[in-house]
Write a structure and sequence with these properties.
heterodimer, A: MetI-like fold, 72% helix, B: MetI-like fold
Chain lengths: 302, 281
């Protein structure tokens, strides 16, 4: 059958696919082309086509180490580090705890409580944290009423990175247990029986049965996380930036927003955003390669 | 010993999650006197007083924002579902001539995000700045949801659609009368995915809307609760002014309650949806 014939036969299906495909192309692929303004001196009134080409000069903030850019990079890397060390393992630990509960009912109640914060927007999460830990929040009112002094947590620039990390743990740890719990339920119970017949203590069973059973999913999620490692919570930070100042709160994404959309340095901001995106893709590809070398499947197969 | 420790850790984690919700809801309905005495938040209201809600729904900024959020969520979800189902259905048909290239377009879009600035310029170029549609159109389709729907459609028994085709039913009829009625479960999962993300959307509103009359609830929440801007009678459209604390908590509750209402449903279906996506994607 010729291509024209098949196109004619599938014209209704083509029509079905058209709006969705057009939206993905318009808001995912066309913006990719818009990245050319990283190489232009973009002026909104001239448009993309009318603005002058400037070569690599927008990238000079990156290569020459502009202090504001370096500050954003530093904060981003600190947060990436904190998140890899504290946020990433948290759901694994929580899933192991939930899994060791005997009562199915208690487990289900705990799950319904723990999944809830995931569905709250960052605006709500940040507002809740303020109401709980802020100067006139629940915690400090309690401390004040009992003459215990107060704790300065919200708006304290020294604690800002810790605060951000705890907010992410509060919001998403419960939800993230789903995939681990599913993986745990796939582990053959005969393995545990065999191990305990051989005299393995619960700790040895954890090490030799449970963790190997979770290996695949841990590696998969780690690769996905790696691709996002320069994305450290944009909405969350924008919402709280005013209170603590940019010194501790500026990250790459807020740098792009503040300098581009608000500051009008479109070309420079787009250049930083572009480099950030490319680094992300490179990290995923590299991590996937490493996973293949270690005999794991990774995100896509070879 | 270890068992007790695990139990305590779980209990504390659950308490830390649930207490903020309790405090916010309680404070929003607590009487003035109790709020003033406690100096802010209340964990258990002595009596129930809906004054804060009465002033929120008097027709001022919050009422308006609620209208915007409901419109964006309802209309957005319906449009998203329609567009995603049609695309997923076409992609689920093995013989579809353009199936392979379009599927690749969908899959590849999940690998990268296009960046804030270029997306902003596209939205601006489409003339959507300061339009309520800027909250719907750019995020109308999610590749992940299309993949979930496609996986479901592909698992439907082929004999059903085949026999309808033999009987001469058109593609639209098969889709509407055979496929959709069989897909209620997955449609509700994906619909909820979309609804929650429309309801929670904050950054697109901040980025694209200067006109505060178009603000959704999340942006009002940021301005009057997080940034602590005073809400006076001019903004609320009423002379009835309960304490700021209870008004702020009531705004929070108004933005939380719709999610709490659908939460039992969400919880049952979301977990399934996430796992389908993870396995089939």
């Amino acid at each position: 059958m010729s291509l024209w014939h098949r196109l004619g036969r599938d014209r209704v299906l083509l029509l079905f696919a058209l709006p969705g495909a057009a939206l993905i192309i318009a808001f995912h692929y066309v913006p990719l082309l818009g990245n050319v303004i990283a190489f232009k001196d973009y002026q909104p009134f001239l448009g993309i086509g009318g603005s002058d080409w400037v070569g690599w000069s927008n990238f000079s903030v990156i290569f020459n180490g502009d202090p504001a850019f370096l500050r954003a990079l530093k904060n981003t890397l600190i947060l990436t580090g904190l998140q890899s060390v504290f946020v990433f393992p948290a759901p694994i630990l929580l899933a192991l705890m939930l899994n060791s509960l005997f009562s199915e009912r208690i487990k289900r109640i705990a799950q319904s409580i723990l999944y809830l914060p995931h569905f709250m927007s960052w605006v709500i999460v940040v507002a809740l944290f303020q109401q709980m830990l802020g100067g006139s929040g629940l915690l400090n009112n309690y401390l004040r009423a009992h003459d215990l002094g107060t704790l300065n947590i919200i708006g304290n620039s020294e604690l800002f990175h810790v605060l951000l990390t705890s907010q992410i743990i509060w919001k998403d740890t419960g939800w993230a247990t789903i995939l681990f719990l599913a993986a745990l339920s796939q582990i053959d119970s005969q393995l545990y029986e065999a191990a305990s017949v051989d005299g393995a203590s619960p700790r040895r069973q954890l090490w030799h049965v449970t963790l190997p059973g979770l290996r695949g999913i841990i590696i998969l999620l780690f690769i996905l996380r790696l691709g996002d490692s320069l994305t450290v919570g944009f909405e969350q930070i924008i919402l709280q930036q005013q209170a603590v100042g940019r010194d501790v709160s500026e990250v790459l994404d807020t740098y792009v927003y503040n300098n581009g959309v608000l500051g009008g340095a479109w070309g420079v901001a787009a250049a930083v955003g572009l480099v950030k995106g490319l680094v992300g893709v490179a990290l995923v590809l590299a991590a996937n390669k490493v996973a293949h070398i270690f005999g794991e499947q990774g995100v896509y197969s070879r | 010993m270890i068992r007790v420790l695990k139990g305590v850790v779980l209990l504390v984690f659950c308490a830390v999650v649930i207490i903020p919700f309790v405090a916010v809801i309680s404070t929003s309905i607590a009487p003035n006197k109790q709020i003033t005495e406690s100096g802010g938040l209340v964990l258990l209201p002595e009596s129930v007083d809906f004054a804060a809600y009465r002033s929120l729904f008097a027709g001022g900024v919050v009422t308006q924002a609620l209208g915007v959020s409901v419109f964006v969520t309802v209309v957005g979800t319906l449009l998203s579902l329609t567009v995603s189902c049609l695309l997923a259905y076409a992609l689920a048909r093995p013989s579809f001539v353009a199936g392979r290239p379009i599927l690749l377009v969908v899959l590849f879009s999940m690998l990268f995000s296009p960046g804030i600035i270029p997306t902003y310029l596209v939205v601006k170029g489409a003339g959507l700045l300061d339009s309520i549609w800027s909250l719907i159109v750019p995020t109308m389709i999610s590749a992940f949801n299309v993949i979930v729907l496609r996986a479901f459609f592909m698992n439907l028994p082929g004999e059903l659609t085949e026999s309808a085709r033999m009987d001469g039913a058109s593609e639209l009829k098969i889709f509407g009368y055979v496929v959709l009625p069989l897909s209620k479960a997955v449609l509700s999962v994906v619909g909820l995915f979309y609804a929650v993300s429309y309801w929670n959307a904050f950054f697109s509103a901040l980025l694209y809307l200067n006109d505060s009359r178009l603000w959704p609830l999340q942006l009002v929440l940021r301005t009057y609760v997080i940034n602590d801007t005073q809400l006076g009678s001019a903004e609320l459209g009423t002379e009835l002014l309960p304490p700021q604390a209870s008004i702020q908590m009531a705004i929070l509750v108004v933005s939380i309650v719709p999610i709490l209402l659908i939460y039992p449903f969400l919880q049952r279906h979301f977990a399934k949806g996430v796992l389908t996506g993870a396995v089939k994607g």
